[in-house]
Specification:
Two copies of one chain form a homodimer. Chain A contains 14 helices and twelve strands. With 356 residues, chain A is α/β, with parallel strands linked by helices. In chain A, helix 2 crosses helix 4. At the A-B interface, helix 5, helix 6, strand 2, helix 7 and helix 12 of A face helix 5, helix 6, strand 2, helix 7 and helix 12 of B. Chain A binds a DNA duplex (16 and 16 nucleotides) through helix 3 and helix 5.
Chain lengths: 356, 356
DNA sequence: ATGAAAGCGCTAACAT
DNA sequence: ATGTTAGCGCTTTCAT
């Protein structure tokens, strides 16, 4: 019994150290390079020996060591992805698209969350570098704002999703949605429904995209000769950090309502849903008393009541395309930055303005 | 100009091959092992030399090669996670929890989607093995159903999330939610509201959890002396593959309604929301005409109208706990499988049964 | 306090 | 057709 136990222990310990091509070589009575060649189907090895070696490998449960292969080839077949938060419905969908293409190209995905924090993002990127990922995908990146030395250290092919930058065009490529156009689509839609008092409910912690959507909103109003009142624009304070978008919508809605708007373009769907919930609490009917337009087109926007009219981003496609750009980069093809056009989906949260 | 360009090219080419400790050693006029020791703060190296080497390393933008370190230490500081789908709101939240703990332990996360497909799951696991991950986290695993040889090849510490198995207790650990209890909570809630005609709307492609929830439903009814009619149980055909849960709910609701139920316990929130949407289409008022109870407690369940009464799983905590189990396993601590208890959250989709 | 050398598991050039 | 050797970048004895 004691012996059995010791044996068992020994087996366990053995299994710790995975078997290598040398183990196979010893068993097959050949050299380790013959094994290597056989397993890689080299025509140099005779069919008979090749099959024999493969059989032994199978019997021994051989699993090739990708680490050793990487050290030699200096390719890890791994890409790093940084998102703001994994549970963010928008980026979850984007990552789904990324993973689809990555997998079809036999690349694995290392995922990190940076929570819109510059330091966390840098830490994640640095970690990717140490691990020698073949490429990096950055969403909502903060690095463009801090164009300091760290950015210069990004030496791996990198694609930025929804965060443009003018720096480092050689290594830093980008794919983004046309925020300005999206805002125009939203506001034009509200105008076409007869609204003349139109508000914008924005966020303070995503300055670039928020700024573009705000400009789209303002310019569309200007061109239509519609009035613009400062009180019709409500942007959550950047310092009010870690407040989520739903709460932003809830919090900012009342002041917009007090300012007398009949339609609101919201920074994104979560903000719009926050506004929607606030209205439910206040007894305001959507869309009779107020029209709401969101941005993104996350699944949730379809399932709230009323369903949300929103400017859609093709999330899955954005992820797939970004990954494809990275693949092209790895193949040393020249690629061009791309701007996706969002499109409006009319649903229940917007309607003709009520005359009163 | 031409020279500058050529130089630029050269620099680019150089930067391809990352600098190594040998490069630093050459520049510092010491051996590569001295550099290695200095960078790892070995007390053997004099303070002065140590600082000098670190300075040079910094100037040269040295980034240690984790691949080489892994080959030597046979530790990759990486774990593999398999989910059904990255965009699944339930597992997105679980993975968020996993990543939090993984990061605090300086582990990176490789993420793969298996879409409830056995082969895809095996492929992902095999890939993790080649990459020599330190541990694996499997959600909704199919391997327990196919207890074939592949399962035996799982040699890395592994924790199963929401998919129990009796095989391989040495390597395969698990953490799950008490499906049976959850079902009881849901049905008891409906009973407490006076419902006597209670249905179950289940899914066909997750046999284990679906079975447990069904049993909880049946036993609770039995114990309360309430009637059970076969037509009150609707389970979507397993063959009806790739149909999502929302559509399952939409599709199956009418037949349950025809069978005369006044309350329905749904397999999960997505199914319940599908049922909810179907009711909106049919002019059925929730909760006046019909009470609905979901399962999971995803964010979405709070934002639909009416908000969903549901049996909550502590998703974030499940992810965090599973990762902690894995960490303990890596530390060679003995761990015990754990079953989490779900809890009911009463919201707007359930109400006292209407007398008529 | 520092250098030389071995070795982690693999591939590939170079023999034979 | 197969074996020998070197080397990917690093850590770690073992010398000195």
């Amino acid at each position: 019994m004691l012996i059995l136990f010791a044996l068992h222990k020994e087996v366990l310990k053995m299994s710790k150290r995975k078997i290598s091509i040398e183990d196979i070589a010893r068993k097959a009575g050949v050299s380790h390079s013959t094994v290597s060649r056989a397993l890689r189907d080299s025509p140099l090895i005779s069919f008979k020996v090749r099959e024999e070696i493969k059989k032994i490998a199978r019997e021994m449960n051989y699993v090739p060591n990708a680490i050793a292969q990487s050290l030699l080839s200096s390719r890890t077949n791994t890409i790093g992805v940084v998102v703001t938060s994994i549970a963010d419905p928008f980026y979850a969908e984007v990552v789904e698209g990324i993973e689809q293409i990555a997998r079809s190209a036999s690349l694995s995905v290392l995922l990190s969350a940076a929570h819109r924090d510059f330091d966390q993002e840098i830490t994640a990127i640095d970690n990717f570098h140490r691990r020698r990922v073949d490429g990096i995908l950055l969403t909502d990146s903060r690095i463009s704002k801090h164009n300091i030395k760290q950015v210069a250290q990004i030496t791996v092919p990198t694609v930025l999703i929804n965060s443009q930058t003018k720096d480092q065009p050689e290594t830093l490529h980008s794919l983004s949605i046309d925020d300005y156009l999206g805002a125009r689509l939203a506001v034009e839609h509200l105008i076409s429904l007869g609204h003349t008092c139109i508000g914008y409910l924005g966020v303070g912690d995503r300055s670039s995209s928020n700024q573009l959507r705000l400009e789209g909103y303002q310019n569309t109003l200007s061109e239509s000769g519609l009035p613009q009142i400062p009180d019709w624009v409500a942007i959550n304070n950047e310092d009010d950090t870690r407040i989520n978008d739903i709460d932003t919508g809830k919090k900012m809605l009342p002041q917009l309502l007090n300012a007398g708007v009949t339609g609101i373009f919201c920074y994104n769907d979560m903000v719009a849903i926050g506004a929607l919930l606030a209205c439910q609490g206040l007894g305001i009917s959507i869309p009779q008393d107020l029209s709401l337009v969101g941005f993104d087109g996350i699944a949730l926007s379809r399932y709230v009541t009323p369903s949300l009219t929103t400017v859609c981003q093709p999330m899955l496609e954005i992820g797939r395309y970004a990954m494809q750009m990275l693949l092209d980069l790895l193949d040393e093809k020249t690629i061009e930055n791309r701007v996706f056009s969002p499109f409006l989906i009319k649903r229940g949260s917007s309607a003709m303005v009520q005359s009163h």
